Amino acid sequence: MAKRVRKRKVSSHKKPLSAEDVRAFFGDSVSLAVTGLTLKQFEKRMKAKGSGPATALYSSGKKKLAKEDYAGAAADLDKAISLSPVFPDAYVERGEVEYRRKRYADAERYFEKALEQDRTKAWAYYYLGNIDYKEGRYGTALKRMSEAIALGPDSPLFLGKRGLIKSKLNMTKEALADLDKAISLGSSSLLHMYRAEAREGIGDYDGALADCDKAIELDPNWDRLFRLRGSVKTTLKDFEGAAADLNKASELNPTFSLTYTYRSELLLAQGNKEAALAEMDKAIELDPNDALYYKERGNIKSMIRDYAGALEDLDMAIDINDKTSFAYALRGTIKYKVGDRKGTARDFKRAEKRGESLADLKKWWSHQENKKDKLK
Asked: CATH 1.20.1540.10: does it fit domain 290-376?
């Protein structure tokens, strides 16, 4: 009689997990780079997800964030993190709270902490790239967004944002390739808006208008789209059309501060600097914590030779966020005009330390001079 051979049972602790196993726990956004974990490794990762009360607080915080209850979301997520300090998803959500509050330095700290605990958090890279983009650090923004894409290569949102960043770096062909691919993966008003912004940035205003029109067709109730189209029309000196679009943006979202900055740009282009300044006053009244608003108002004040007021605004911009793009350069130039040579030298050195090269400064100042030309 043949001897019966017993099959050796493979320990589940040593059996690699499939992509489905991992996604079942971590969600669809998880990178496939984490597949192939053993159960023991997987259980270790599970601890980073939080459990019990921490998970409940995390879920509550996410819901409050979705409802724009930022104070409530922050409170719940802080409690979740205190109960489960190794909880990268909670840090990502906590970072998003600060991102939406425009407290970008605080947001960066939370996203960096998430990545310190888990390098596969694509959304942390995405938001860090967005912050870099907003603050004019396009090279770093490109690196961050590329890291997000490495984890989510078929994300239209990641690809679209990288395309927009590339357009700022004059990588025109690469930018449009990313944006075209993003739209092919999932056409949306957001992606058409990104491509419109990219086309606007490279001077393709007809293409930008076409994408704005398509975006508005897909989402006729999004105020941001009308602001963008208004901006393009301002550049094309279609002032009547720009005013109509910006009025529509205000109608859709009457308390959104950014619309007033676009109105300010329109009025500057028309030569009405006093009215432009009044629009910036309204923007700051609605959102007194945006460093860029103070920088822009300071710039307008410098145009009308209110140098004391301009310096006060630029001091405020730098106090709120000392990484504000070209704030030091602008303040340094105004200090030069009032005879503060040492202050000028200090501010220009700070600008260069931030990575704003002399070529960047000259390009930015050329843009400012063009604005002033419109006022003459």
From this structure: no
Check if the beta carbon of residue 198 is closer than 8 Å to that of residue 175: yes
The residue extents of the domains of the chain are 290-376
Name the DSSP class of 16.
B
Helices (H) and strands (E) in the chain, counts: 21, 0
Residue 310's Cα: distance from chain center in Å? 26
pLDDT averages per 10-residue partition of the chain, 376 residues: 48 45 44 46 52 88 96 97 95 97 95 96 97 92 97 95 92 93 94 92 92 97 96 95 97 95 95 96 95 94 95 94 83 91 90 69 57 43
Instruction: Kindly tell me the burial class for residue 187, based on how many C-beta atoms sit within 10 Å of its own C-beta (0-12, 13-18, 19 or more).
Output: middle
The model's pLDDT over 34-63, given as tens digits with 9 standing for 90+, comes to 444 555 555 555 555 555 889 999 999 999
Q: Which two tokens stand for residue 352?
A: 């260069």
How many whole angstroms separate alpha carbon 178 and alpha carbon 111? 25
Q: What is the pLDDT of residue 44?
A: 53
- On whether the pTM is more than 0.70, the answer is no
For residue 7, give every residue at least 6 positions away whose Cβ sits within 8 Å of its Cβ, in sequence order, or none. none
Distances (CA, A) of 341 to 303, 312, 336, 354: 20, 18, 6, 20
- Measured CA to CA, the distance from residue 149 to residue 154 in angstroms comes to 8
